[in-house]
Specification:
By secondary structure, this protein is of the alpha+beta class. The chain has five helices and 20 strands. Strands 19-10-11-13-9-14-17-16-15-20 form a ten-stranded mixed beta sheet. An eight-stranded mixed beta sheet has the order 2-3-4-1-5-8-7-6, with helices on one face. A hairpin with a 5-residue loop joins strand 7 and strand 8.
Length: 307
């Protein structure tokens, strides 16, 4: 039994020496940015008050935010950890408990945030496929410009000791393994883990922990966009803006997402994705190979930088 069962990822935080430069990248990436107390907060079209934040400082990953289901759960976590509950000084307000994971990484668990008013999604005509002709007597036009980020879907963290980190996150937050990455029958290097929301379907993974030869650190964060057309329009917009493309467009094997990876001005990898798998708690766990982890159903092979 875990202390609580989180219901989703909430946000990722970074530091950067130039907020104007970061703002330009985030807007090209498809996020709406506001400035607040010399910090940047970026949201999507969904109800989350913010998904990404940046404060002035040496470039780096600052913290992972997870969302508890209720303030009562936040109190249970605080009591179990001997931690304080503090006001969350960010758009949406709410409360936060701050913990430190086995690699010393800051983990913020939040509850009671006020939803932001949703922003309008892009207008889309139906798809015509060989088996379903849903668009008749109408053209399909996709507007140029950045993608429309809807929400933050998952974060991938490099860890020093996979089993120690897996135990820490599962004992506190109730994660369920979707796919464990086994190098041998005796040794696994990581796992895709989803939230335990009972019979409610949830993303194939909200957190992926991987024991990397690079040591502990941030790997990437992934943001869901409106649809495949939106992802491709965003790809073109980022390319035309001269941004650093890392990997894509392709379709993963584990999780099945269509993906497109880019780097911010300080080398942090952010992903656009769409069309991922959904599972319930009853769907259990699987063991997968490194080839499945790094492979694609279609698209370019993974570059050496992805690890």
């Amino acid at each position: 039994m875990s202390t609580i069962r989180i219901e989703d990822i909430a946000f990722v935080r970074f530091r950067a020496p130039d907020l104007a430069q970061m703002r330009g990248f985030l807007e090209d990436f498809g996020l709406s940015v506001i400035e607040h107390d010399e910090r940047l907060f970026a949201r999507g079209t969904g109800a989350n008050p913010f998904l990404h934040s940046t404060e002035l400082g040496e470039p780096g990953f600052a913290s992972l935010g997870l969302r508890a289901a209720s303030l009562a759960d936040l109190e249970a976590l605080a009591n179990a950890e001997g931690a304080d509950i503090r006001p969350l000084d960010a758009p949406g307000g709410g409360k936060v408990v701050v913990l430190s994971d086995p690699d010393g990484r800051r983990v913020e668990v939040v509850a009671g945030q006020t939803d932001a008013p949703p922003l309008p999604p892009p207008a889309r005509e139906a798809w015509n496929t060989a088996s379903a002709r849903l668009r008749e007597r109408q053209t399909k036009r996709v507007a140029a410009g950045p993608a429309h980020v809807v929400r933050l879907g998952h974060c991938v963290l490099n860890v020093a000791d996979f089993r120690a980190s897996e135990r820490w996150y599962k004992e506190r937050f109730g994660f369920i393994t979707s796919d464990e990455i086994a190098l041998t029958p005796e040794f696994s290097v990581g796992a895709f883990m989803r939230c335990d929301r009972g019979a409610t379907p949830t993303d194939h993974h909200t957190l992926f922990l991987v024991q990397s030869p690079k040591g502990p650190g941030f790997n990437h964060a992934a943001f869901e966009v409106a649809d495949f057309d939106d992802l491709m329009a965003g790809h073109q917009a980022l390319k035309e803006a001269g941004r650093h493309a890392e990997w894509g467009v392709g379709r993963h094997i584990l999780g099945s997402q269509v993906f497109d990876y880019w780097r911010d001005p300080w080398g942090h990898t952010l992903e656009h994705w769409t069309d991922g798998d959904l599972f319930t708690a009853a769907d259990g766990s699987n063991v997968a190979s490194l080839a499945e982890l790094m492979g694609v159903q279609w698209g370019p092979s993974a570059p050496p930088t992805m690890g």
